[in-house]
Amino acid sequence: MILSEAELIEIRQHLHQIPELALKEFQTHDYLLSIIDQLKQDYLEIEIPQKLPTAILVLVKGSNPKRTIGYRTDIDALPVTEKTGLSYSSKHSNIMHACGHDIHMTVALGLLSYFSENQPKDNLLFFFQPAEESESGGKKAYELGIFHDQFKPDEFYGLHDNPNLPAGAIGCRIGTLFAGTTEVNIDVNGKSGHAAFPQNANDTVVASASLIMQIQTIISRSIDPIQSGVITLGKVEAGTIRNVIAGHTRIEGTIRGLTQKMILEIDDRLRDVCQGIARSYNMEVKLELNQGGYWPVENDPELTKKFISYMKNNPEVKYIETPPAMTGEDFGFLLAKFPGVMFWLGVEDDSELHSATLTPNEKSIMRGVDAVKGFLIDRMEN
Ligand SMILES: CC(=O)N[C@@H](CCC[C@H](N)C(=O)O)C(=O)O
Fold first, then answer.
1. Fewer CB near the last or first residue (10 Å), C or N of the chain?
2. Which architecture, in CATH terms, is 5-179+296-381?
3. 25-41 pLDDT, tens per residue?
4. Can you give the pTM of this predicted structure?
């Protein structure tokens, strides 16, 4: 069965309703398997890695394989409360496919359904990957050894949706496509006390306010303005009630840089700033930095040239050269282990990625399937 555009849209809307957080994608996993099970099985071999139970690997055996081409889709969602008002909105409270992974999965299923009926020349390995938004699912998969024997790609491809590009357009570039990131966790430990007696307490809200403002100077004052970097602190938690001084503040954020050197430079400066605050406010500032697998996404030059040339020469595809973006992706880790290409698929929307109103244009799904399918067939001829 080759999934039609209408069937793919129905699948996407179902996936949209059942978003799940990193490593907890069990319902998504079961639904994906239920679709995969309906496909013609003659060329398929399915593996569920025990050590990463929400992942799925599907090998499509080639007729005359020279190589195994990997295609990866991420399957997790974000802790965002959906505000699209769509009839098929998320049924899971405070979780949403706000990064478009429902679109990614659906394109992968569209491709898989095509190749399950039309045996590819080369082997094709579809990797439904948990935990892209956090927990470094790509790195975990690699380190747990799930790419083994025939389930090991020689080259790897994957897409990310992009609301700023027209529906179905393909965006890419040679070199760095996405930034590397470091997850930042800061625990500021002072002393709680009565709001009326600050002299007997050590207020972590005041120290954290100062810390947050000082962190803002790292990008503006400490790094070369010609280079790029970002620090966003997306979560701050402190206190329990207005009249108790907060003895603990938790700050969570993310650092982004287009090179590993830049990320490490920002990491170092952040350590210094935390130490300075600890000393000046006489409290403990515990800093934890974790890059996990969110390495810069470096596209392989030769494969990317082939990819771009195919897309540019295909009259059905609108190809757009895109600049590097500060989004992170643990596909960066996999591209450091296997040569390959990450690219954007335009989904044309006014809302940004990670926003509660993200509404990707569903026309992008079939256009994405057709563009990638064409490229994969072309790649197998060379
Ligand atoms: C495409 C996208 O939005 N990816 C996420 C990846 C998260 C990286 C990591 N967990 C971090 O927050 O540092 C992004 O936020 O860019």
1. C
2. 3-Layer(aba) Sandwich (3.40)
3. 999 999 999 999 999 99
4. 0.94
